[in-house]
From TrEMBL:
The lineage of its organism: Bacteria, Bacillati, Actinomycetota, Actinomycetes, Kitasatosporales. GO terms for biological process: anaerobic electron transport chain; nitrate assimilation. The chain crosses the membrane at residues 6-23, 44-69, 89-108, 128-144, 179-197. This is Nitrate reductase-like protein NarX. The gene is narI. Residues 2-221 form the NarG-like domain. Keywords: Cell membrane, Electron transport, Heme, Iron, Membrane, Metal-binding, Nitrate assimilation, Oxidoreductase, Transmembrane, Transmembrane helix, Transport. PANTHER family: NITRATE REDUCTASE PRIVATE CHAPERONE, REDOX ENZYME MATURATION PROTEIN REMP FAMILY, RESPIRATORY NITRATE REDUCTASE 1 GAMMA CHAIN. It comes from Streptomyces parvulus. It is found in: Cell membrane. GO terms for cellular component: nitrate reductase complex; plasma membrane. Its main location: membrane.
Amino acid sequence: MNVFLWGVLPYAAFALLIAGLVWRHRYDRFGWTTRSSQVYESRLLNIASPVFHYGILFVLVGHLIGLFVPASWTGAVGVSEHAYHLFSLYGGTLAGVLTVAGIGMLVYRRRTKAPVFRATTANDKFMYVFLLGAIVLGMIAKLSDTSGDGYDYRSTIAPWSRSLFTLNPKVELMEGVPVLYHVHAVIGMILIALVPYTRLVHMFSAPLQYLTRPYVVYRSRDPRQLGPRPDRRGWEHTGS
Protein backbone atom coordinates (compact mmCIF):
# COMPACT_ATOMS: atom_id res chain seq x y z
CA MET A 1 0.00 0.00 0.00
CA ASN A 2 2.84 2.40 0.82
CA VAL A 3 4.42 1.78 -2.59
CA PHE A 4 1.06 2.17 -4.35
CA LEU A 5 0.12 5.45 -2.61
CA TRP A 6 3.47 7.19 -2.94
CA GLY A 7 5.11 5.40 -5.86
CA VAL A 8 2.23 4.57 -8.23
CA LEU A 9 -0.72 6.87 -7.52
CA PRO A 10 1.20 10.11 -8.29
CA TYR A 11 2.10 8.87 -11.78
CA ALA A 12 -1.41 7.53 -12.34
CA ALA A 13 -2.85 10.94 -11.42
CA PHE A 14 -0.43 12.70 -13.75
CA ALA A 15 -1.20 10.25 -16.59
CA LEU A 16 -4.94 10.83 -16.16
CA LEU A 17 -4.31 14.58 -16.16
CA ILE A 18 -2.38 14.51 -19.45
CA ALA A 19 -4.69 11.97 -21.10
CA GLY A 20 -7.73 13.97 -20.05
CA LEU A 21 -6.33 17.22 -21.38
CA VAL A 22 -5.49 15.63 -24.73
CA TRP A 23 -8.91 13.96 -24.99
CA ARG A 24 -10.75 17.13 -23.98
CA HIS A 25 -8.82 19.22 -26.49
CA ARG A 26 -9.44 16.79 -29.35
CA TYR A 27 -13.04 15.81 -28.73
CA ASP A 28 -14.62 18.39 -26.42
CA ARG A 29 -13.24 21.82 -27.27
CA PHE A 30 -16.66 23.42 -26.89
CA GLY A 31 -16.88 21.95 -23.40
CA TRP A 32 -13.48 23.40 -22.43
CA THR A 33 -15.07 26.17 -20.43
CA THR A 34 -16.15 27.23 -16.97
CA ARG A 35 -19.78 27.04 -18.12
CA SER A 36 -20.23 30.47 -16.60
CA SER A 37 -23.60 31.17 -15.00
CA GLN A 38 -23.03 34.91 -14.79
CA VAL A 39 -25.98 35.52 -17.10
CA TYR A 40 -28.27 34.13 -14.36
CA GLU A 41 -26.78 36.07 -11.44
CA SER A 42 -23.79 38.39 -11.29
CA ARG A 43 -23.94 40.40 -8.07
CA LEU A 44 -22.80 37.62 -5.70
CA LEU A 45 -20.59 36.06 -8.37
CA ASN A 46 -18.61 39.29 -8.69
CA ILE A 47 -17.66 38.90 -5.01
CA ALA A 48 -17.30 35.13 -4.70
CA SER A 49 -15.32 34.49 -7.85
CA PRO A 50 -12.39 36.86 -7.13
CA VAL A 51 -12.22 35.68 -3.50
CA PHE A 52 -12.02 32.05 -4.62
CA HIS A 53 -9.58 32.61 -7.48
CA TYR A 54 -7.16 34.75 -5.47
CA GLY A 55 -7.38 32.31 -2.57
CA ILE A 56 -6.67 29.23 -4.69
CA LEU A 57 -3.85 31.04 -6.48
CA PHE A 58 -2.14 31.79 -3.16
CA VAL A 59 -2.70 28.17 -2.08
CA LEU A 60 -1.03 26.87 -5.25
CA VAL A 61 1.91 29.26 -4.93
CA GLY A 62 2.35 28.25 -1.29
CA HIS A 63 2.40 24.56 -2.21
CA LEU A 64 4.91 25.13 -4.99
CA ILE A 65 7.23 27.01 -2.64
CA GLY A 66 6.82 24.55 0.22
CA LEU A 67 7.34 21.43 -1.89
CA PHE A 68 9.87 22.50 -4.47
CA VAL A 69 12.04 25.12 -2.75
CA PRO A 70 14.50 23.26 -0.47
CA ALA A 71 15.14 24.49 3.05
CA SER A 72 18.77 25.09 2.11
CA TRP A 73 17.68 27.67 -0.47
CA THR A 74 15.56 29.70 1.94
CA GLY A 75 18.30 29.42 4.55
CA ALA A 76 20.86 30.71 2.05
CA VAL A 77 18.87 33.95 1.59
CA GLY A 78 18.59 34.50 5.33
CA VAL A 79 15.13 33.05 6.04
CA SER A 80 15.24 31.05 9.25
CA GLU A 81 13.17 27.91 9.68
CA HIS A 82 11.05 29.63 12.35
CA ALA A 83 10.36 32.62 10.10
CA TYR A 84 9.46 30.28 7.26
CA HIS A 85 7.14 28.34 9.56
CA LEU A 86 5.33 31.50 10.66
CA PHE A 87 4.93 32.69 7.07
CA SER A 88 3.68 29.25 6.02
CA LEU A 89 1.30 29.01 8.96
CA TYR A 90 -0.32 32.44 8.76
CA GLY A 91 -0.03 32.90 5.00
CA GLY A 92 -1.28 29.40 4.24
CA THR A 93 -4.15 29.71 6.71
CA LEU A 94 -5.22 33.05 5.22
CA ALA A 95 -5.09 31.62 1.69
CA GLY A 96 -7.11 28.60 2.81
CA VAL A 97 -9.72 30.76 4.54
CA LEU A 98 -10.08 32.90 1.41
CA THR A 99 -10.51 29.81 -0.76
CA VAL A 100 -13.04 28.19 1.57
CA ALA A 101 -14.96 31.47 1.84
CA GLY A 102 -15.03 31.75 -1.94
CA ILE A 103 -16.21 28.16 -2.37
CA GLY A 104 -18.82 28.70 0.34
CA MET A 105 -20.24 31.74 -1.43
CA LEU A 106 -20.21 29.96 -4.79
CA VAL A 107 -22.03 26.94 -3.35
CA TYR A 108 -24.53 29.21 -1.55
CA ARG A 109 -25.16 31.04 -4.81
CA ARG A 110 -25.72 27.80 -6.69
CA ARG A 111 -28.09 26.49 -4.03
CA THR A 112 -30.19 29.62 -3.54
CA LYS A 113 -30.42 30.95 -7.10
CA ALA A 114 -32.83 28.66 -8.97
CA PRO A 115 -31.46 29.22 -12.52
CA VAL A 116 -27.89 28.66 -11.31
CA PHE A 117 -28.91 25.54 -9.39
CA ARG A 118 -30.58 24.09 -12.47
CA ALA A 119 -27.33 24.65 -14.40
CA THR A 120 -25.33 22.77 -11.73
CA THR A 121 -24.37 19.23 -12.73
CA ALA A 122 -23.45 16.18 -10.65
CA ASN A 123 -19.93 16.67 -11.97
CA ASP A 124 -19.84 20.15 -10.39
CA LYS A 125 -20.98 18.82 -7.02
CA PHE A 126 -18.38 16.04 -7.16
CA MET A 127 -15.66 18.57 -7.97
CA TYR A 128 -16.66 20.90 -5.13
CA VAL A 129 -16.49 18.04 -2.60
CA PHE A 130 -12.92 17.08 -3.54
CA LEU A 131 -11.75 20.68 -3.85
CA LEU A 132 -13.19 21.68 -0.49
CA GLY A 133 -11.94 18.48 1.12
CA ALA A 134 -8.37 19.06 -0.09
CA ILE A 135 -8.31 22.66 1.18
CA VAL A 136 -9.94 21.98 4.56
CA LEU A 137 -7.80 18.91 5.31
CA GLY A 138 -4.68 20.87 4.42
CA MET A 139 -5.66 23.61 6.86
CA ILE A 140 -6.49 21.11 9.61
CA ALA A 141 -3.19 19.31 9.11
CA LYS A 142 -1.31 22.59 9.28
CA LEU A 143 -3.15 23.85 12.36
CA SER A 144 -3.03 20.51 14.19
CA ASP A 145 0.59 21.09 15.22
CA THR A 146 1.52 24.75 15.72
CA SER A 147 3.99 24.23 18.56
CA GLY A 148 7.56 25.23 17.82
CA ASP A 149 8.12 25.09 14.07
CA GLY A 150 5.26 22.65 13.52
CA TYR A 151 5.58 19.48 11.49
CA ASP A 152 8.71 19.55 9.33
CA TYR A 153 7.20 18.49 6.00
CA ARG A 154 10.19 19.97 4.17
CA SER A 155 12.31 17.03 5.30
CA THR A 156 9.79 14.33 4.30
CA ILE A 157 6.93 15.30 1.97
CA ALA A 158 8.91 17.89 0.00
CA PRO A 159 11.86 15.59 -0.86
CA TRP A 160 9.40 12.84 -1.77
CA SER A 161 7.57 15.25 -4.10
CA ARG A 162 10.81 16.25 -5.82
CA SER A 163 11.91 12.64 -6.13
CA LEU A 164 8.86 11.93 -8.31
CA PHE A 165 10.41 14.03 -11.07
CA THR A 166 13.55 11.89 -11.09
CA LEU A 167 11.39 8.77 -11.62
CA ASN A 168 12.85 7.38 -8.42
CA PRO A 169 10.18 8.08 -5.76
CA LYS A 170 11.50 7.88 -2.22
CA VAL A 171 8.41 6.25 -0.76
CA GLU A 172 10.16 5.54 2.54
CA LEU A 173 10.07 9.28 3.36
CA MET A 174 6.27 9.12 3.64
CA GLU A 175 6.17 6.31 6.21
CA GLY A 176 6.30 8.52 9.32
CA VAL A 177 4.19 11.39 7.96
CA PRO A 178 1.07 12.20 10.05
CA VAL A 179 -2.18 10.67 8.79
CA LEU A 180 -3.78 14.06 8.07
CA TYR A 181 -0.99 14.89 5.64
CA HIS A 182 -1.39 11.46 4.06
CA VAL A 183 -5.11 12.00 3.45
CA HIS A 184 -4.51 15.55 2.22
CA ALA A 185 -1.91 14.32 -0.28
CA VAL A 186 -4.13 11.49 -1.58
CA ILE A 187 -7.12 13.78 -2.08
CA GLY A 188 -4.84 16.29 -3.77
CA MET A 189 -3.62 13.65 -6.25
CA ILE A 190 -7.18 12.54 -6.99
CA LEU A 191 -8.12 16.18 -7.56
CA ILE A 192 -5.25 16.57 -10.04
CA ALA A 193 -6.55 13.55 -11.95
CA LEU A 194 -10.08 15.02 -12.01
CA VAL A 195 -9.09 18.44 -13.37
CA PRO A 196 -9.51 17.68 -17.11
CA TYR A 197 -12.93 16.12 -16.55
CA THR A 198 -14.44 19.05 -14.62
CA ARG A 199 -14.84 22.79 -15.07
CA LEU A 200 -11.43 23.17 -13.40
CA VAL A 201 -9.93 22.48 -16.84
CA HIS A 202 -10.26 26.19 -17.62
CA MET A 203 -7.13 26.83 -15.53
CA PHE A 204 -5.14 25.64 -18.56
CA SER A 205 -6.70 28.24 -20.83
CA ALA A 206 -6.49 31.33 -18.65
CA PRO A 207 -6.52 34.44 -20.87
CA LEU A 208 -2.99 35.56 -20.01
CA GLN A 209 -2.87 37.66 -23.20
CA TYR A 210 -5.13 40.14 -21.42
CA LEU A 211 -2.06 41.33 -19.51
CA THR A 212 -0.30 42.57 -22.65
CA ARG A 213 -3.00 43.23 -25.23
CA PRO A 214 -3.87 46.82 -26.30
CA TYR A 215 -6.65 48.44 -24.34
CA VAL A 216 -10.19 48.26 -25.66
CA VAL A 217 -11.64 51.56 -26.87
CA TYR A 218 -15.24 52.17 -25.88
CA ARG A 219 -17.14 54.86 -27.78
CA SER A 220 -19.76 56.95 -26.10
CA ARG A 221 -23.39 56.76 -27.24
CA ASP A 222 -23.84 60.42 -26.45
CA PRO A 223 -24.68 62.13 -29.82
CA ARG A 224 -22.73 65.18 -28.71
CA GLN A 225 -19.54 63.09 -28.56
CA LEU A 226 -19.91 61.38 -31.94
CA GLY A 227 -17.87 62.37 -34.94
CA PRO A 228 -14.13 62.62 -35.63
CA ARG A 229 -11.78 62.54 -32.67
CA PRO A 230 -8.22 63.82 -32.46
CA ASP A 231 -5.39 61.27 -32.48
CA ARG A 232 -4.21 60.12 -29.06
CA ARG A 233 -0.97 58.67 -27.83
CA GLY A 234 -0.57 54.90 -27.64
CA TRP A 235 -2.12 52.25 -29.82
CA GLU A 236 -4.62 54.72 -31.28
CA HIS A 237 -1.89 56.94 -32.68
CA THR A 238 -1.86 56.59 -36.48
CA GLY A 239 1.14 58.76 -37.18
CA SER A 240 1.46 61.40 -39.88
